[in-house]
Amino acid sequence: MSGAEVDLYEVLGITNNASKDEIRKAYRKAALASHPDKVAEAEREAAEVRFKAVQEAYDILYDEDKRHLYDTHGMGAFNGSGEPGMGAGPDLDDILAQMFGGMGGMGGMGGMPGGPRANKPRRSPNEEQKYEVKLDDLFKGKTVKFASTKNVICSLCQGKGGKEKAQAKKCATCGGQGVKQVLNQMGQFITTSTVACSTCNGEGEFFSPKDKCKKCKGKKTTEEKKILEIYIPRGAREGDKIILEGEADQVPGQEPGDIVFHIVEDEHPIFRRAGSDLTATIDITLAEALTGFSRVVIKHLDGRGIELQHPKKPGDVLSPGQVLKISGEGMPVKRGDARGDLYLIVNIKFPDENWNPSAEVLEKLKEMLPKPDAPIPADAVDEVDYDPKGNLDEFGAKDAHGGSAWEDEDDEGEPAQCATQ
Ligand SMILES: [Zn+2]
Ligand SMILES: [Zn+2]
């Protein structure tokens, strides 16, 4: 609820008799031009304000009913969230007077008695939420729409809680303070603490059942379903916040708080991210590593195939664990065209037990591939048997003072020396 009234038609740059189609086109143009993600850092705050205004203007003007309300009553017909208030178009000043002037007691808990109104929070609390986003969506950017249920000021009583002419009764339990002092005994000490009055729910006053507003039943707010839209910019990362201003639950007499989404990055099955760089493992067969290939080795987060040609010069081979750095194929950097780098780690797929070469083939391979190093000299030599499927988890396990056995003992909860003191 800002003081100066803006002309919604002006915001979109259209005339008062613009058609729906013209409104939609003007909205697209204005939204694109003022999108916070499309401007430099310094202009971002101003752009966000403009973007919100454009959005609000469109929400109202594109809906025929709302547009009619706006044309006949101006912004007073809306309660700040783009939703129509009473059909008759209440006077904004009346609502404000009612909100700030008409209520005794205090809304919240634990204030100081005597100065209740001064302690009333001026904004309803923000709603903080985690929002899990797939790496693909952080790469491409994404608009998400979802239905949200929130408390809005009751449109019938404008947050009064009672019928139009009804007067709220002062709460006798708390004497209209909304709070009570309670005595607590702690050992031999007696302390007092201030708690919200349960008779009037901390309001200091209430309406008798017959005077309660029919719509909200005296609660002053009603639940409303609303479709919210958030835009996740390209390159956003874990911990980034997306703020929907004023979309938190409405509380009478307070500016609504924001819904704040905290981005949590979902783990990706293939790509790992560090800042704006990405890494992934690619499988290359032994034959490809030795003789070369030209093919798509991985599908990128935007669905493109990434093609590599190997070798770069004849005779080059790929080794297990070798890292191929591809500049500019990492994550996008927010609000810019720059991109991080992609690091591909080579996994050589050696032939498995299904490979069944003939003796001649093996002989040929031996001839063609590089020869082994010189034999290791030793005075005595034993030929030994071995298990080709040894497991390193067993390494040290037989010995109480060996590797994993020692760890188990530690787990049994014997306190470490430094902890006992
Ligand atoms: Zn009370
Ligand atoms: Zn009501």
TrEMBL record:
Residues 7-74 form the J domain. Keywords: Chaperone, Metal-binding, Repeat, Zinc, Zinc-finger. It comes from the Eukaryota. InterPro entries: DnaJ, DnaJ_C, DnaJ_domain, DnaJ_domain_CS, DNJA1/2-like, HSP40/DnaJ_pept-bd, HSP_DnaJ_Cys-rich_dom, HSP_DnaJ_Cys-rich_dom_sf. Residues 386-401 have a biased composition (Basic and acidic residues). One of its GO terms (biological process) is protein folding. A zinc finger (CR-type) spans 141-225. GO terms for molecular function: ATP binding; Hsp70 protein binding; unfolded protein binding; zinc ion binding. Residues 372-421 are annotated as: Disordered. Pfam families: DnaJ, DnaJ_C, DnaJ_CXXCXGXG. Residues 141-225 form the CR-type domain. This is Uncharacterized protein.
